[in-house]
């Protein structure tokens, strides 16, 4: 299952994501993974969640982000929840690539049974039809 949280900067997307990660850590019987661009969540996310900085792994576009996620799922069958902060920015703000990425991640998440939550700085009125399906 995929859920997108979108909005302009300052609308509370990351704060919502942090609360969701910490709640998942408390209730999950498996592993919780949180992917971010940079290290801004380091002190807000509970240490039990696996926090990954995309910059450390040279992930800087939609295709490499998808491959990284697929690798996580392939190597760890205990992941129950995956969170991605600022995914649109990681995908270089490329609308077409982001739409493909969202569809692929949704398909993969459904196949492996992982809950995925993604935040992206996209104004609600500018969301594509693909993005709107997952709000």
Distance between the termini: 11 Å
- Class from secondary-structure proportions: alpha/beta
Detail the poorly predicted runs: none
DSSP summary: helix tally = 5
Radius of gyration: 14 Å
Q: How do the strands of the widest beta sheet line up side by side?
A: 1-5-4-2-3
Instruction: Estimate what percentage of residues fall within beta strands.
Output: 15-25%
Helix content: 40-55%
SSE order: EHEEHEHHEH
Largest sheet report: 5 strands, parallel
**Mean pLDDT metric:** 97
**Beta strands, count:** 5
Name the overall outline. Answer: globular
Structural notes for this entry:
With 135 residues, this protein is an alpha/beta fold. 41% of the residues lie in helices and 20% in strands. It is built from five helices and five strands; from the N terminus they run βαββαβααβα. The chain has helices at 13-27, 62-75, 87-90, 95-112, 129-132, and strands spanning 2-6, 31-36, 50-53, 79-84, 115-120. The protein has a five-stranded parallel β-sheet. Helix 2 (62-75) packs parallel to helix 4. The chain is globular. The N and C termini lie close together (11 Å). The mean pLDDT is 97.
């Amino acid at each position: 299952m995929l859920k997108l949280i979108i909005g302009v900067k300052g609308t509370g997307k990351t704060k919502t994501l942090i609360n969701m990660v910490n709640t998942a850590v408390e209730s999950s019987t498996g592993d919780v993974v949180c992917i971010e661009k940079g290290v801004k969540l380091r002190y807000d996310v509970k240490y039990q969640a696996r926090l990954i900085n995309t910059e450390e792994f040279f992930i800087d576009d939609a295709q490499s982000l998808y491959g990284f996620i697929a690798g996580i799922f392939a190597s760890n069958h205990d992941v129950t929840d995956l969170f991605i902060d600022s995914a649109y920015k990681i995908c270089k703000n490329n609308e077409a690539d982001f739409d493909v990425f969202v569809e692929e991640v949704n398909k993969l998440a459904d196949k492996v049974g992982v809950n995925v939550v993604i935040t992206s700085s996209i104004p609600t009125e500018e969301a594509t039809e693909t993005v709107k399906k997952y709000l």
